[in-house]
Amino acid sequence: MKLNCSEIKKILVIQFRPFGDVLLATSYLEALRESFPRADIDFLVKEPYQEVLDKNPYLSNVISFPQERGISYFSGRMKLIFDIRRRKYDLIIDQQNGVGSGQVLLFSGARYRLGWMDGKWKVVYNLKGIRGAIRYRASRNFDILHPLGIKEQPYELFCHIRPESTAYIRNWLKENRLIKKDIICIAPGSPRVRKKWDIQRYVRLTDLILEHTQYTVVILWAQNELADAQTIISQTKKKPLFAPPTNFNQVAAFLKECKLLICNDGGINHLSVAEKTPSLAIFGNTSPELWSPEGVFPHHYHLYNPDWEQMSDNSFGITPEEVFCKVRNILREV
Which of 42, 54, 188, 332 could make a disulfide contact with 61, Cβ separation 3.0–4.6 Å? Predict the structure, then answer.
């Protein structure tokens, strides 16, 4: 379909979830705004992932909808489709590439429907982006915009930290006498079990850091990661600190106070990019080519053993001593 950019007054970007993917989709919003400076640019996302987009300077509106099941799901989806159709978008960008986003797109009434050439709902798209070379996902997201004449450009990931989140974290740091202390944050959890480096190796790594450096170690955790955090706290010789309960925005505020984040492949690693906190991610069965910011952003690194037999265990073929050696090298640079 031939594109007439002058017709585009209202744009919708669709990326329902999760936190990391929504954050990665912010990579091209500045470029989109520059190409369509007078257009309304909205973003459609599931609750609670709209938190990532709070006060994004390139968006006009963030539209969120609840996660529902059963009969409520069908009635909620119909309500959402009618709402999107009522808003009369000229262009919809389906970054999600899923059944739900395809349904919204199909009934949207939008003149231009942009998605991936190899997408599940490619029959619905009349503009199609072709995935280019494998590279960091935030960079590769630009490929979907090629039909709009937008090329990849230098970018940043954006996550606004609310003042109350900063105050919450700084009060905790003050209570624990950590103001102006050098802190290394370790986030051992992941919602995907196969992404989690073996917890006993995290225990050993924590001991190595506490025994051989002057850094304070703080263990970050989400509610479904509590057991892993407690394992590290209970089994280390020198005890790290247990972070307070945090939501996504408060984690961002915590990362601002840290010297280094050590984590698995996941959303918190991308959040460290947004907050310009150096990071070291430990990769197992996911591709660092696609998910690691190393080489795109300074002071972000990963460890990956391509010879590891992926289904054997969660050691990832990487020892705590190897990680600690990398940590010491990073700390000399940052």
Answer: 42
Instruction: Quote the pTM value.
Output: 0.95
Q: How far apart are CA 107 and CA 186, in angstroms?
A: 44
In the chain, the number of structural domains is 2
CB under 8 A, 24+ apart: contacts of 80-83: 80/104, 81/107, 81/108
Per-residue pLDDT reduced to its tens digit, 260-283: 999 999 999 999 999 999 999 999
CATH of the domain at 311: 3.40.50.2000
Say if residues 282 and 303 touch (Cβ distance below 8 Å).
Answer: yes
Distance of alpha carbon 6 from the chain centroid = 33
Show which of 148, 180, 207 is a domain's final residue: 148
Find the helix or strand (DSSP H, E) in which 293 lies: none
Question: What pLDDT digit, counting tens, does each position of 154-204 carry?
Answer: 999 999 999 999 999 999 999 999 987 899 999 999 988 889 999 999 999
Within a 10 A sphere around the Cβ of 194, how many other Cβ atoms?
Answer: 13
Domain range enclosing 80: 5-148
The helix-helix angle for 320-333 and 199-212 (nearest 10°) equals: 50
Q: Are residues 103 and 183 in the same domain?
A: no
